[in-house]
């Protein structure tokens, strides 16, 4: 049996718009982001997609994207699981800073390493940092010593994967059709695992906001490469491919000093 899985990064957030590192800071969608989520829902509906279950993070930009997509598809009744394991990568002391200003201060190369390397974490956020998540009620259930102060992509893979294995993979194997509405880096973590992308090659993967990314998985949940897939991903973005490639390039350019 071929399983269809749709991943979607949330629509543009307020801090995407302001070009600020966001991580676990709970920023809302911008108006453009809401429009992107709507367009994604319309596209999925028009192309005949259906979902039995949806998964999202604890962050409102992803939750809202999920909700808008399901609303457009007339699927608001399906169960939605929210879990912090699908949160964006925790950006440490960079959270709140403007990306271009940070590149001007530390250099484009350093910011590229912080943003896209596999195993170099950003500087940690101290517990008294303005955006330290341990102060938020929604993380009360996480033992305090497990609340990240910073995460590199490797750390993000290490928290996304157990959730994939325990919750998401069994649901797919049972034949359910899933939507996962998450974040640029929690989805990079997931596709790195699914497509077995090397630590070097993942550096160049940038996921645009609000664009459905469709995967076909075999019975072992290994991806089946599709025609028109977004190399090195086996999955395929739905929509205008030139516009999507330009949007991914724009995400990459956010970390340049200009
Ligand atoms: O700021 C963030 O949390 C992420 C996603 O918006 O940014 P980046 O693309 O720089 O990893």
From TrEMBL:
GO BP, sorted A to Z: glycolytic process
Keyword check for Isomerase: yes
GO molecular function: phosphoglycerate mutase activity
Coiled coil: none
Database matches in SUPFAM superfamilies: Phosphoglycerate mutase-like
Signal peptide positions (record): none
Key words of the record: Glycolysis, Isomerase
Positions bearing the site annotation: Transition state stabilizer: 183
CDD domains attached to this UniProt entry: HP_PGM_like
Catalytic machinery residues: 10 (tele-phosphohistidine intermediate), 88 (proton donor/acceptor)
Annotated residues for binding of substrate: 9-16, 61, 88-91, 99, 115-116, 184-185
Enzyme nomenclature, EC number: 5.4.2.11
Catalytically driven reaction(s): (2R)-2-phosphoglycerate = (2R)-3-phosphoglycerate
Pfam families linked to this entry: His_Phos_1
InterPro entries: His_Pase_superF_clade-1 (IPR013078), His_PPase_superfam (IPR029033), PG/BPGM_mutase_AS (IPR001345), Phosphogly_mut1 (IPR005952)
Top EC class of this enzyme: isomerase
PANTHER family, A to Z: PHOSPHOGLYCERATE MUTASE (PTHR11931)
Membership in a protein family: Belongs to the phosphoglycerate mutase family. BPG-dependent PGAM subfamily.
HAMAP family: PGAM_GpmA
The name this protein goes by in its record: Phosphoglycerate mutase
């Amino acid at each position: 049996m071929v399983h269809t899985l749709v991943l979607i990064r949330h629509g543009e957030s307020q801090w995407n718009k302001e070009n600020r590192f966001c991580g676990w800071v709970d920023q809302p969608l911008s108006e453009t982001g809401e429009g992107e989520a709507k367009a994604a829902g319309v596209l999925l509906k028009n192309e005949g997609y259906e979902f039995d279950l949806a998964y999202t993070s604890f962050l409102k930009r992803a939750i809202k994207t999920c909700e808008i997509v399901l609303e457009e598809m007339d699927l608001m009744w399906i169960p939605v699981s929210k879990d912090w394991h699908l949160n964006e990568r925790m950006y440490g002391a960079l959270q709140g800073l403007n990306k271009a200003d940070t590149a001007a201060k530390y250099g484009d190369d350093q910011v590229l390493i912080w943003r896209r390397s596999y195993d170099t974490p950003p500087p940690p956020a101290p517990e008294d940092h303005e955006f330290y998540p341990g102060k938020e009620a929604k993380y009360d259930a996480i033992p305090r010593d497990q609340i990240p102060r910073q995460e590199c992509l490797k750390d993000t893979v290490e928290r996304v994967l157990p959730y994939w294995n325990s919750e998401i993979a069994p649901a797919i194997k049972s034949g359910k059709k899933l939507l996962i509405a998450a974040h640029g880096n929690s989805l990079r973590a997931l596709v790195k695992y699914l497509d077995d992308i090397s630590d070097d090659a993942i550096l160049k993967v940038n996921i645009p906001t609000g664009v459905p990314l469709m995967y076909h998985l075999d019975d072992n949940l290994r991806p089946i490469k599709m025609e028109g897939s977004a190399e090195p991903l086996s999955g395929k973005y739905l929509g205008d491919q030139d516009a999507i490639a330009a949007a991914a390039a724009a995400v990459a350019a956010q970390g340049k000093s200009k």
